[in-house]
Amino acid sequence: MHGPYSCRDASSSVSWGAATPPFRRRLRSSFPSPTAKKKPMPRQSTLTQQQSPQHSTGRVDLLPHKRIYRITMDMAAGPPLPASPSQPDALIDHAASITYWNSVSADTTGMLGGYPQTSRIDLQGSSNFLIKLRRTKSSIPARDALPPLNRAADCGAGVGRITKEFLLKVAKRVDVVEPVKKFTDELVQGLKSGEWAGDGADPRGGRGQVGEVVNLGLQDWTPEVGAYDLIWNQWCVGHLTDVQLVDYLERCKNGLVEGNESWIVVKENMSTDIHQQDIYDDEDSSVTRSDDKFRKLFKEAGLKLVATDLQRGFPKELFPVRIYALQPQQIGRKALDRPLYPGIHS
Ligand SMILES: C[S@@+](CC[C@H](N)C(=O)[O-])C[C@H]1O[C@@H](n2cnc3c(N)ncnc32)[C@H](O)[C@@H]1O
C-alpha cells in the first residue's frame, strides 16, 4: 500500500498526525528492529526477540504479511522456535490495562495507536459487512434502504469512534460500555444536539441517540436480556481472559433480541504467531488471539459463526484484522444451518 501507510513512510519521519509521544517512541523503536506485527491501536506488540517469529530471519520488519509468513514457514525446518507461554491470557491484569488506557489520549489517535488514518477504512469495512449481513436476512428489496436497528451496544467503546461514525447511523439507540471514564466523558461531550441520553424514540436527521453509558469492563457487564439487535465488540476483548470471554459471550447471547436478525460482532486483530499461539502484550495487558482460538471460544459460548471476513486496506505492518458475526447456536432456523452467508467468506 502507498501513501501515508507505506512502509517507507513508517520508517522515515513522515508526520504521524497527533501521535502521542509514547507512541512515536514505540514506533521508532520498532523500526528497523524486528518485531511482530503492530496493532492499529496503542497495544503495540512488545514481543521479545525470542518470541518474535520474524526475528531469526535476520530480515527487518515491514515485509508484506504473506512474505513474512512464507519466510517464517521456511524456518520451521530450522532450529525450533521457543514456544510462547501456553496460556498467555493468564497474564492479563485488568488493573494494569486500565492504568495503561488512562494514560492514553482521549481521541482517535489514542484509540488507534497513532494510526488515526485507519479509522475511515475500518468503519467503511464494518459498515459494508453489516449491510451484507442484514441484506442476506432481510426481505426488503435491495433498492430500498434498510430500516434502522432498534438498539445496539458499542462495547469497549473508547471515545466513541464507532458509536459516532457508524452505530448512530444504523441504530436508533446505542448503549456504550467502556471502563475508562475519561473516554466516555469525551464521547458524551462530543455528541451533537439530540444525540444524547435518548431512548431512540425520537431520532433526528436519520441518526440515533446514545442511551446508557456504562463504565464497566466487559467481564463485569451483563447486557439486558433480549434487548439488542447488535452487540459490537472491537479491539477490546483481548482484555478478557479466555474464560471471561466465553462467559461474556454467553451473556451477550442472552442479550440479543430473539430471532435471526440480531448479532454479536467481534472485530479483532489476529495473532500472526506461526505456532498459532495467542500473543500476550504487556504494554496494555491484553492478548491477541488466533483465528482458531476465536472460533473455539465462540463454540464454547454456544455461538454459531454466521459470517466472517478479513478487513482489507490496512497498512501491511499491522496485524491482520478479522470480523465475525455470531448468533446463538440453537436458533434452529434453516437459514442458519448454512455455515456462512453468501458473499462473506472466511
Ligand atoms: C483500542 S481501544 C478501542 C476502542 C474502540 N473499540 C475503537 O475501536 O475505537 C481499546 C478499548 O478497550 C477498553 N478496555 C480496556 N479494558 C477493557 C475491558 N476489560 N473491557 C472492555 N473494554 C476494555 C479501553 O479502555 C479502550 O477504550
Q: How would you sum up this structure, described in words?
A:
This protein has helices at 7-11, 21-30, 65-75, 94-102, 108-111, 118-137, 161-170, 181-189, 242-255, 291-300; strands spanning 149-155, 171-177, 209-214, 230-234, 263-269, 279-281, 286-288, 303-310, 321-328. With 346 residues, the protein is an alpha/beta fold. The protein has one domain (1-147, 217-346): Rossmann fold (3-Layer(aba) Sandwich). α6 runs parallel beside α7. The longest helix is centred in the middle third of the chain and has 20 residues, at 118-137. The chain is globular, with a radius of gyration of 20 Å. 45% of the residues are buried. The protein binds S-adenosylmethionine. S-adenosylmethionine binds next to α4 and α7.
List keywords for this structure.
single chain; 346 residues; alpha/beta; Rossmann fold; seven-stranded mixed β-sheet; two-stranded antiparallel sheet; 10 helices; binds S-adenosylmethionine; transferase; methyltransferase; EC 2.1.1.244; SAM-dependent_MTases_sf
Question: What is the strand and helix layout of this fold?
Answer:
Elements: H1 7-11, H2 21-30, H3 65-75, H4 94-102, H5 108-111, H6 118-137, E1 149-155, H7 161-170, E2 171-177, H8 181-189, E3 209-214, E4 230-234, H9 242-255, E5 263-269, E6 279-281, E7 286-288, H10 291-300, E8 303-310, E9 321-328
Parallel strand pairs: 1-2, 1-4, 2-3, 4-5
Antiparallel strand pairs: 5-9, 6-7, 8-9
